Every structure is written in C-alpha cells, then in structure tokens.
Amino acid sequence: MDRLAADGIDVVRVVYPDLIGTERARDVLLDELPRASEHGLAFCRAVYHTSPQGDVVPVGGGLDAGLPDISVRPDLDTLVTLPWEPGVAACLGDVVDPATGAPAPESPRDLLRAVLARCSDHGLRPVVGPELEYYLCDPEPGPVGGWRRYARDSGVVYTAGLRADPDNHLLRVLRQVRDLNLGVISGNHEFDGGQFEINLTHSEAMSAADRAFRFKAAIKELARKEGRLATFMAKPFNDAGGSGFHLHLSCGGAEGAEGTEGRNTFDDPAGAYGLSATARHAVAGVLAHAPALAALLNPTVNSYKRFGPDTLAPWLIDWGLDNRSAMVRIPPERGSGTRLELRLGDAGANPYLAIAATVAAALLGVLAGDEPPAPLEGYGYDATKSARLPTTLSAALDALEADTALAEVLGKDFTTSFLSYKRNEVERFQRHVTDWEFTEYAYHL
C-alpha cells in the first residue's frame, strides 16, 4: 500500500477473463484494497453467460440459477502499473463461488490451473510460447461510420518501420507493453495491410496464458486511446487473411520428477525425428482430439472463415517437420528448443481455454502412448491424405461434446456451460439477416 501510494497509485484495477477471454474488471480505490483482498469483490456469476451483445444465456449460473454471485479476490502478485493510465495499477483476480469457497467452474484461469495440476501428477510441466496476430483499424469517415484497415499496403509481410506503418503504431505499442512485463520479444507487420504480430517469450503455461490475456487487453486499450480499433477477430475482412493464435508447446519435468526436472522432455537426439516418445505421444494426442480442440481454439462463428486451402491456416488434421501448411508444425530447433507449434487457433480464442485444451489433449496422448502417423511432406491441403477439421462452429461443438475424454479433463460443469453458451451464439447467428443475404437476394427476389 505504502509503496503504491509513494509511486502515485491511487486506483487498482482488478481484472479477470470471461468465457470469451475479454476482460471484466472493477476499479478499486487504494484505501479499499485491503478490504477487497480480504472479502473479495462481488460480481454476478451471469457475467460468464453474457453474450458480447449483452444477452444472458439461460444456462447454469445464469438466469436459471437466480443470478448468484461470484467473488473476485485481487492476486497482488500480478500487480503492475499501467503506463498509459496515470495513477492506475492493475492485477488479475481469482474467482471463487462464495457459497462453497471453491473456484467457479466457468473460470478460465482456474480451469487451466486444474489441467496443469493433472499434468504435474504425471510428471509434466507444460511450457508455452504464444504468437498472436491482430488488425488495427481506423474510423471510416462519412455518415455511416464503421471501421477500415489501417495502412492497406500489400506485400509488406515481415516488415517494420514507416513502409507499412506510417504512424509508427508498432513502435509505440512495443514500448508500452514492454513496461507491463509481459515478456514481449519483437513485432512486425504481418501479411495483410493493417495486420501486426507481436511475439511473447515462452514460459510456464499459466504465466503464458496470463501474459497473452493481458497483452490482448493492452493492445485493444491502447488502440482505444487513439480512437482506433484493434481486433483479434479471426477474419474481420473478406479481402484479407485471418489472424492466428499459434501455441508453441514443450514440457519440462515437474518439480521432483526424478531425472526430468529442469530439462525439456520433448527432446531426444536418438528418438524418431529427434523427438522423445513423450513429444510424439503429445503430437498424437493433439491430432486425436483436434476436432474437439477446434471448439476452444476456434470459438466463434467467424473462426471457420479463416480456414481453407492456401490460407496458411490449418484445414486438415496433420503434422509436419518445419512445415507451415500442417496443423501441427515441429520447428527445426532441438535440444532445449524442441517443441510443437499448434497452428490451429485463431486470435479470438480465450488464451486460458486454448492453452488448457491443448495441454489436456497432449496429456491424453502421453497417457495413451499412441504414435502419430507419418509426418506431412510437401504442401498440405490435400484432403485425400488427412481428415478435415470441422468446418463450422456447430460441428466443432458437437465434436467437443462427443469427446468424453477431453471433456473429463476440462470438467463436466465447464464443458456444459461452454457448449450452452456457444450454441446460443450459433442460434442467434442463424436467425440474423446478414448484409450478404440482402446484397444477394433483395434486388432479384
């Protein structure tokens, strides 16, 4: 308290993720922080069942449960000063059910915590490196309004400087998020105009999820400060590519795991492809559970418009050695850098749920002891060689419901809530009349 006050901080923002991975929060005056830490901050549990349009989905914990409370306690170990908000520090919050004292079953951070505990029980300590892409948009002038892509130049992938970023957006946000201690490494302009990628370092899985969540929130907030929109939506524009959320996964030995603590258990110079049996089993697990993983790593109706041949987004369930057209890529590094890269996810995914599901699938593969098929050679997208991923959110949700092994690791209560929430999204979309339909039919019919 005294240190914060001496630093000019008089407000602490307590933040936690909802089901879609966006931030929910409350600003707490510094003098009230001890009380908030002891008793928690009351929120309505229906926040987990509230759509982006503000509708409450009538599932457990929402309307049908009488709109009960959750309690959010500040995790002061995560406290950081916000560089762009004078006098404000922010921290993550831990969510509990005040009636039981147990974590709320919908809490994404607690879901990941539970999955990681299962991994630790089997001597595994997942390490994750997140890669996220996003689009920056400027307001569209004129009476209709809307948003248009910032800097629409083509052919500027892997560039930096004013060539593709005339307002130096990337330099500003790199410096701002660096000061949040998020493990930011570097950034560049991505494939399409107005699209950027900023890389975060690898760390233990919970830290990686926390950093990815806070990174997304920071990028969106910094854009708002400038009157702009930063979106991690999977595919916001018809004439441009999608934005991915690639996860680099390796495993260290869990604390106390004899012979493995502190080393990368995916590395084995004598193993097939330089991979240990643990790594190969993990790849097999991710492939086996890929249809269900899609529901959590591609969690919106829009997500499935990012997929398809020649998109550099996955379309088939396959893996390859340093092959970016495969769903699972094994980068060329070995030794401490041995890892798999899951290219399935889009940037709209909730970091906690994406990492929890990926780690759960890898764990199931390790426990099953299965070997993956032969790796993809050459350019992917040949549907005669590998099974296809789900092509709609509805199909992915059905796959998640049918994957009882993955659902058991994620938890029945969470899976039921997630399925209900997302099926409501599909139903609302199916009832909505789109601009495409009006353009296609109105004049001729």
Describe this structure in words.
With 445 residues, the chain is an alpha+beta fold. The chain is built from twelve helices and 15 strands. The chain has helices at residues 2-6, 33-39, 108-121, 169-178, 205-225, 277-288, 290-297, 351-368, 393-402, 404-410, 412-431, 435-441; strands at residues 11-17, 23-29, 41-44, 69-81, 88-96, 124-139, 147-149, 184-189, 195-200, 203-204, 229-231, 245-253, 319-321, 328-330, 340-342. The strands form two sheets. Strands 6, 7, 8, 9, 10, 11, 12, 13, 14 and 15 form a ten-stranded mixed β-sheet that branches. Strands 2-1-5-4-3 form a five-stranded mixed β-sheet. The longest helix is centred in the middle third of the chain and has 21 residues, at 205-225. It is globular, with a radius of gyration of 22 Å. The termini are far apart.
Task: Give structural attributes.
single chain, 12 helices, globular
Q: Quick recap of the structure?
A:
With 445 residues, this protein is an alpha+beta fold. 31% of the residues lie in helices and 21% in strands. It is globular.
What is the number of beta strands? 15
Roughly how many Å apart are the termini?
67 Å
What is the helix/strand order?
Answer: HEEHEEEHEEHEEEHEEHHEEEHHHHH
Report Rg: 22 Å
CA-based shape = globular
Extract low-pLDDT stretches. none
What profile does the largest beta sheet have? 10 strands, mixed
Mean pLDDT: 92
Structural class designation: alpha+beta
Oligomer: single chain
- Our count of helices gives 12
Residue share in β-strands:
15-25%
